[in-house]
Amino acid sequence: MNKTWLVAKETYRREVKNWSFLLMIFAPFIVLIISFFFGMSSSSAFDDNTKVGIVSQNEGLAQPLKKTKDFDMYKNKTKAEKAYQAGDVSGYIVVENTFAQLEATYYGTERLDSDLKEELMRGLNAQQQVLNLKNAKLSEQQLKSLSQKVKFTEKTNSKKLDANDEKNLKTATFWILIFVLYFLVQTYSTIMAQDIASEKGTKIMEMIFSSMPGGNYFDGKVLGIFMEILTQLIIYALMFSGFYYLAPQIDRVKETFAQVKPAIDQVLGQIISWGLVFVILGLILYIVYAAVCGAIVTKAEDANKAVQPLVYLTLLGLFSSMSLSNNPDSIFAIIMSYVPFLSSFLMPLRLIKGNATNLEAGVSMVILVIFLIGSILWIRKIYPSLILQTDDNGMWKNMKRALQGIKE
After folding, report:
1. Which run of H or E residues covers position 98?
2. pTM, rounded to two decimals
3. What pLDDT does 362 receive?
4. Straight-line distance from the first to the last Cα atom of the chain, in angstroms, rounded to the nearest whole number
């Protein structure tokens, strides 16, 4: 057991210290951060360039608009025109009081932005209402009646979602898990195959196998790769946790985050489900067979070719779940939900859509676990024969020779 752990630690140390691992971990976040800051700066530049000048003697209109960042107030049309020509504002609006009615005229190269127009019209309508009441010369009682407002009471239970919301969140959780499985398999199956292929046929392997069973060495390699996967997931979890708790403190983010936080909480609560179990088991299965793919080649550069069958299987599972998402009760979906390699994609889909029971999920999981255990025991036996072969006879011939060696 100690030697197995040493192999695992050495595999983990070598993979994690690689620059490609660090790039794989942080590249998505670097892109997101750069995009965020560019978006923020572009938004600020856009806000600065879309300021609109207001020419008005109406203080009731000028005071509320002065408090916003979208309007600049000018005393007369001449100054507003100069600011427009200088590029300080994208246009200007002249507001006049004619026959107890406010009239606003916009001057600019392009049409007034719809959001700015809506904000301006709220202020204009409020002032127009003041003029209307003043000109109507109503009594105090009549003014009081006109100022009566609607009484609105809102009673909600934020912890409870309707059936449609829960269904949508379950579907979102499923797609998150499926895409996590797909990308982890695509990434780490190649890493596993290349790591093992790089050791193929070296003299040091003969020395290692003379001091420890080949099956234990295989266990250490798989354990080391899973420690690398766990490291990546922990880093992502810590980064997400940091964002989750810091987002409410960021001015430009907190309002949007507050709106989506209930949905995020629901998705996080649903992550621990049958879907997560199938994703974990499926990932282990793919990584174990990636080790075989790396062991049957004679050159490290052929590892990518050897792992192609696993790539095709993940693509089949992904596209099948996408195409059958609206027809999860088809015979094809039912059969695939019990087939190892594919059940990790299809059974969670059937559960979310309500086309499979917990008993069916349990049966599928038992089949997957039995197949996984059997695969591990079988691979541990043939692994030494595969890794020590140096003849360039092709992948399938190498596999056939390894199986013949086991039988003998």
Report:
1. strand 91-98
2. 0.66
3. 92
4. 28
